[in-house]
Amino acid sequence: MKDTQKEKLTKLMAEEFTAIELNLYLDTHPQDKRALELYNQTVDRLYALLEEYERQYGPLSNFGLSPSSYPWQWIEEPWPWEMNFCDREDNEQCGYTKKS
Amino acid sequence: MWIYEKKLEYPAKICTTNPKLAKVVITQYGGPDGELAASLRYLTQRYTMPTGRSKAVLNDIGTEELAHMEIVATLVYNLTKDASVRDIKAAGMDGYYADHDKALYFVNGDGVPWTAAYIQSKGDPIADMHENLAAEEKARATYEYLIQLSDDPGVTETLAWLRQREIVHYQRFGETLEHLYDYYGKDHYFFMGS
Ligand SMILES: [Fe+2]
User: Fold this and answer.
1) Residue B192 lies in a domain
2) I need a surface site. Which of A21, B7, B79, B107 has the fewest CB within 10 A?
């Protein structure tokens, strides 16, 4: 996985995390208009990022939520547990957030 | 229905090959206060919650816990995948290795397998919510002990993020408990009259 791809993926992960956090908050504060507005804005940004990422690198979800080009892309590696986001320069497996 | 997303909820960081650390971190995979127990507890309690709000909270936090289970598994997997048998022996992980090689299995730090007896689903929403508040605090405490035991900066950072999620879940469950008291029109006193 190339650095640019990982960078895009982390951006997307951050956006989805924002959505998760707002989602849980809204579950117990359903009438908070400001939070709802933030949630909906996050959804828009997340959708845009997902669309761009998946068009370039293939589907992030299966079971009909995202199309695949040929050949079936879902089986492509790495799987999530095979990505290490350690940024220590001397770790060969990592280097993903390495600033160059 | 659940849909899998081919990414972690948080960018897990592992900077060392470290079976000794893996041996204790695995308790958050299959131990009494770990993420398997958390996710299954909330997801099974949700069926008998009385309101849309309480069902949503258990559904959503239970689902997030599944993502945490995957993060803990990612830590253990990466801490051990390049370890030699010699490293495994030196770390005292040889008993685990004999049964599972480096595969992921649901045990605590001492190799005790996961059991459904770790969790409860009482059918009394207020009792269940109290259990969940305690579960979040126990998970938070476990992450703090693991942070003390960690000598891997990446793993420490990841554990600190997981710890924070327990604090947020505790907050949401506390609000849900208040909501349940309102729903049942109950006063709640935390002291006994004399
Ligand atoms: Fe939690």
Assistant:
1) no
2) A21
